[in-house]
Amino acid sequence: MKAIDKTLAGKVFLLTGGSSGVGKATALSLAQKGAKIVIISRQAKNAEEALREIAQKTGNDQGDYLVADLAVQASIRKVANEFKQRYSNLHVLANLAGGIFFEQQLTPDGIERSFAVNYLSHFLLTNQLLDMLKESAPARVITVGGNPSFLKHPTINFGDLQSLDRFSGMNATAQAMYARVFFAFELARKLRGTNVTSVVFNPGVIKSNLMRQTPWYMKLIGAMYEPFAREVCEVGGYLATSPDIESTTGVFFNENRQIVPLHQRFDVAIGEKLWAVSQSLINE
Questions:
Q1: CATH number of the domain that 256 lies in?
Q2: Total domain count for the chain?
Q3: Angle at the Cα of 64 from the Cα atoms of 62 and 68, rounded to 5 degrees
Q4: In 3-state terms, what secondary structure has residue 282?
Q5: Mean pLDDT of all residues in the chain?
Q6: Is residue 160 part of a domain?
Q7: Closest among 168, 174, 118, 122 to 151, alpha carbons compared
Q8: How far apart are CA 33 and CA 36, in angstroms?
Q9: Dist CA 123 CA 10 (whole Å)
Q10: Gene3D superfamilies this protein is in (predicted)?
Q11: Could you report the per-residue pLDDT of 102-130, keeping only the tens digit for each?
Q12: Range of the domain at 204
C-alpha cells in the first residue's frame, strides 16, 4: 500500500462503474491513498469481488458498495437516496461508468441504452447528489471523457440525440462521449461560486471488459492495446484528491494530468441546450 494521504480522512468518494474498467482502476488509485471509496455496480457479486481485490492489493478494506442499474432512472434515484441515508457527506462524485452497445435497445424509460448509460445516468445521478456535494464543499465531480483526438470537432445532433433514427453503436458511443464533456463543462459553469468543481478527463488505456461484447474486429483492436493497458488510473486518483487543483474547474485533463484546452471548442449555448433537453428526459 502506498503512503496514506492523511488529508483524505473522513472524506467519502462515490464512483460509478467501480467494479471494472476506469471505475475500478480509479478506485484502486484512491484506495492506495487511503480513501474511503463507495462503488456503484449493477451486480452485488461483481462489487464484492472488486472490493476484495482492491483490499488485497492496497490493504485498504474500508470500501463499500451500492447496487444500481444505470440504465434505469428509478434505480439511479433509489441509489442516490440510499447513499444519502448511509452517508452524511460526499466529497467526490466520479462519473466513470460506461459501455459499448452494438444493438439498439430501449430502456424501461424509453431511452436508447447507450445514451442512457454513457451519458444520462451521469447527468441524473449528479443532479440527485448536488445538494449533498454543496453541503460537503469543497467537493468535486470528475467525469470520464475520452481521447482528446476524438474531441476536436464536438457535435451534438439534437435532431437525433439518442441515435434512434439511424443507429450505429460507435456513433451512439461518440454522441454520448461528446454529451459527457459538454455536461462537465456546463456543470462547472452552473456551480461557480459553490466551492464544488467539475472537470473531465481522458483516463488513457485502462484494463476493462468493454471489448468483450464487441464484434471481432473491435476485439482485434482491443488486443493491440492490451499490453499497454494499466490496472490503476492515476489521473483519476489525482483529479479526485490533489490539493493543487482544488479550485480548478471547467477544464479537460489528459492521462498525464495536463490540461487540454478543449473547453474552447465546446459552445456554451450547446451545453445549455443539452442541459435543458436532459432535464426533460429525466422529467425534471
A1: 3.40.50.720
A2: 1
A3: 170
A4: coil
A5: 90
A6: yes
A7: 174
A8: 9
A9: 26
A10: NAD(P)-binding Rossmann-like Domain (3.40.50.720)
A11: 889 999 999 999 999 999 999 999 999 99
A12: 6-281
Is 1 contained in some domain?
A: no
Measured CA to CA, the distance from residue 251 to residue 264 in angstroms comes to: 9
Cα angle 213, 75, 123 (rounded to 5 degrees) comes to 80
Cross-strand pairs, 141: 93, 198
Residue 74: exposed, middle, or buried by beta-carbon count in 10 A (0-12, 13-18, 19+)? Answer: exposed
Tell me: the pLDDT tens digits for 147-188?
Answer: 888 887 888 999 999 989 988 888 898 899 999 999 999 999
pTM: 0.92
Specify if 146 maps to a domain: yes
Query: For residue 181, what is its C-alpha cell?
Result: 464533456
CB 107 within 8 A of CB 71: yes
* Confidence at residue 154, expressed as pLDDT on a 0 to 100 scale: 84
- Residue 25 CA to residue 35 CA, distance in Å, equals 14
